[in-house]
Amino acid sequence: SVSYWLHEQDYKALAPQPDIKTILADSNAEITDDNLTEFVQKFPNAHFLSLYNCPHITNEGIIRLLKACPNLKTLDLTGCPNINDQLFYAHKDNIALLKKLRTINVTGTGI
């Protein structure tokens, strides 16, 4: 469970997991902008990341994630209340990062 690894930052002891392609971190209040990128980097070949209903993720955390994890192709942000249209417009480079994704779901966000 993702919650297990995020609790008390146990993920820091986790060895890289190159065989994992899908990360389902749904409804997880332990995920924040501060730990998102470092956690996902433990899965260097992940192509799909679901952050469905993660209340502490913001636009800034997503942009940092996309810069650090270029292999991501699908990102589900459904129900993340702190995601808004500034994800696309806050900085001119944001659109270029987002275009690298095949799919981004922003249903139920502030967009």
User: What is the count of β-strands?
Assistant: 4
Using the CA coordinates, give the radius of gyration.
13 Å
**Terminus-to-terminus distance:** 29 Å
Q: Note the run of SSEs as H and E.
A: HEHEHEHHE
Alpha plus pi helix count: 5
Which structural class fits the helix and strand makeup?
A: alpha/beta
Q: Major sheet: size, sense and barrel closure?
A: 4 strands, parallel
In short:
The protein is of the alpha/beta class and 111 residues long. Helices cover 32% and strands 11% of the residues.
Model description:
The protein is α/β, with parallel strands linked by helices and 111 residues long. It contains five helices and four strands, in the order H-E-H-E-H-E-H-H-E. It has a four-stranded parallel sheet, with no helix packed on it. Strand 1, helix 2 and strand 2 form a beta-alpha-beta unit. The model has no long low-confidence stretch (mean pLDDT 92).
